[in-house]
Specification:
Elements lengths: L1 H31 L20 E9 L2 E5 L2 E4 L4 E8 L30 E5 L5 E6 L9 E6 L3
Parallel strand pairs: 1-4, 3-7
Antiparallel strand pairs: 1-2, 4-5, 6-7
Length: 150
């Protein structure tokens, strides 16, 4: 009886650590940053005239957890199209990693099914912006965006 109680408590603590903390952090980040994108009815964001769609895949495999590409150069009006290949990933332009930057997009939801996507409109000022997958950042799943004017 005592061991099953300990296992139950341990399971609750693990679930709270895995889910609860991340949700609060995501909610705090989303509240701090205004929405930077306007979804189209399909859920996708179209590039502005003259802009381009830049696909970035999110993968977990025997090589690790990573974005491809993890270094992107874009112009205002382009759209970053994050696409899940396999794994469970999100996209977070963390304010701590982008000091002094404003208008960062809210944290994405966790993508869980292969083929799911999340779009981010590039409507940032010129400069370099860093993003990460929250649960895999310590494993190196990070990227950066360099915004340049045309």
């Amino acid at each position: 009886m005592r061991n099953s109680f300990r296992l139950s408590v341990l399971a609750v603590l693990v679930a709270a650590a895995a889910c609860g903390g991340g949700e609060q952090k995501a909610a705090d980040s989303a509240a701090a940053a205004p929405a930077a994108t306007t979804p189209m009815p399909s859920g996708d964001i179209a590039p502005q005239p003259g802009g381009k769609l830049i696909e970035i895949t999110m993968t977990t495999d025997d090589k690790g957890n990573y974005f491809t590409p993890n270094e992107v150069t874009a112009n205002p009006g382009d759209v970053l199209h994050f696409k899940l290949v396999i794994g469970v990933h999100n996209v977070n332009f963390l304010p701590d990693s982008n000091p002094g930057k404003t208008g960062l997009p809210p944290v994405s939801p966790f993508l869980q099914l292969p083929g799911q996507t999340h779009d981010v409109a590039v409507n940032f000022a010129e400069g370099t912006y860093y993003w990460q997958c929250d649960p895999h950042a310590a494993l190196g799943m990070k990227g950066h965006l360099k915004v340049v004017k045309k």
